Amino acid sequence: MNPIKVPVFNLSFKPPSKDKCTRCDELEMKIKVEQDEDKKDSLINEKQRHLSKADMACASLKRDQESATDSVYVATFDQQKVLPFPKLTVSIAYWQNCNIKMTLGLLKIVQDPLMAVKVIYQKFVVPGHSYLPNDADFGIIEKALEYCVHEIG
User: Fold this and answer.
1) For residue range 3-22, what is the model confidence (pLDDT) as tens digits?
2) What is the C-alpha separation between 151 and 99, in angstroms, rounded?
3) How far apart are CA 82 and CA 99, in angstroms?
């Protein structure tokens, strides 16, 4: 068998499809099957409001990043991308403590006199529409994990 030789690679990248918004999927399916025009228009308007909300969240993140200074820091956290170790097959074990751990961590920063932090604003983007600056890093990590075998015994 002859190997395939390709002189030029035409590679492109796109946001991962698994991060697609479940609300958009739901609304798209309802719009496709709805027979009543008034209900269909209502669903289309609902989807437009949802997309507008997602756009506003992304714009807010961009403004925050542009306003960062020596005394104002902007940090992004993607809680869905936190990789528990050992790798769990049941996600409820992770999600039950996710938000409380993040909140307690931020509270500790505010209470630490050495940090000199007075205020922390927490903002939440719309899942499936917001690609954070750290998403590309997690794509690399997830790809590498496909080839790793972890045995606990």
Assistant:
1) 555 556 555 555 444 556 88
2) 28
3) 12
Q: And the tokens for 138?
A: 């997690």
Rounded to whole angstroms, the Cα distance separating 64 from 76 reads: 11
pLDDT mean across residues, the chain: 76
C-alpha–C-alpha distance, residues 46 and 59, integer Å: 20
More confident residue, 25 or 1: 25
21, 33 Cβ separation under 8 angstroms: no
Do 83 and 141 touch, CB atoms closer than 8 A?
Answer: yes
CA distance 61 to 108: 23
Q: What Cα–Cα distance (Å) separates residue 13 from each residue in 10, 16, 18, 47?
A: 10, 9, 14, 26
Contacts of 120 (CB under 8 A, 6+ apart): 106, 109, 110
Contacts of residue 124, defined as CB under 8 A and 6 or more positions apart, other chains included, come to: 57
HSE-CB of 128 using CA atoms within 13 angstroms: 12
Paired tokens of 125: 């983007």
pTM of the shown model? 0.58
